[in-house]
Model the fold of this input.
Amino acid sequence: MTIVLIINILYFILTSVLVITWLKLSQQKERVPSRKDTKLTIIVPVRNEEANIGYLLQDLNQQNYPFANFEVIIANDGSTDKTEQIVLDFQERAKYSLKLLNLLNDNESSPKKRAIQKSIEIASGELIVTTDGDCRVTKNWLVSIEELYQKTGAKLISSLVTFTDEKTFINAAQIIEFASLIGSGACAMHLKKPNMCNGANIAYTREVFEEVNGFEGNEHLASGDDEFLMHKIAQKYPEGVVFNADTKAIVRTKAPNTWQSFYQQRRRWASKWRHYQDWKVSLLAIFIFTVNLSVLWNLWQLNILILGLKFSLEFVFLTLVVRYLGHRGKIKFIPIIQLCYPFYVVFFGLVAQGKGYVWKGRKLS
Done:
């Protein structure tokens, strides 16, 4: 009981720090007007995105950034649908340089890392920006990222990501859970202790990618094209990883719409935990798992006071982030998700110890 109490006190302190940090981070408004002269390369790894890729290409056609100063590389990872043809057809009306990079459909252990690596080899931009084929971006997406790059000289910039809003419970649950990850990851970066980011909206200099040898050392892992690279950059440049809290740079992506696809995505995410090389990040992952395990114990023991303290402050943090991401209507679901979340974390923490999952029609490890 004493250990459980100590764990929850530590978690309460951690959540307090997150609330305070988020309030500071989300209120930062001062920006340096973009010079819009940085050469950018947007890399989009895709596989079977015929239903989505056209929307992203059109969003990029609406950017308030000089079209001569950015290029887009679509890394087609063995798509078996009409993705390739859609990109080829769009080249005629693209206002920017649009390149299609076709990759062989093989059993690479990390197809996304391979797609990004091959794209960088032919990229001409100073700053690499990555997103996914099922994402939507705002017209000021690139302007916002370049503003922060010019202001800070950052080596890596992580920006806001959220799920598109749909009227289902599974969607609400994923929006809230994802908000907790984005919010806590943002706060950690602001405190110069980066632990999480999302490859759907990150940017880094080509120079630093080459300097840290890209994905070398974890190229055998299918997941982690974002976080492992960030950890390597942060180790070399502790001040060089920054978070972009500007809502103009927010990227919206589709959430899995079935329990099976949800399961496979979360298993893919959780598979990274045991491969972290930074002991502080590994310790944090173990701590979060332990906290949620203790919640199950407290639920069993009906320790209302401890649960009340945990859930109340956690609710404040989640409300702040969910509202900031534009999902005010999902706030009412937070208490339900808070009760379900410990079961979810413990389950996937255990499942992730196994090998392999299915993603984009492939069996990966």
Observations:
- The longest helix spans residues 2-26.
- The mean pLDDT is 87.
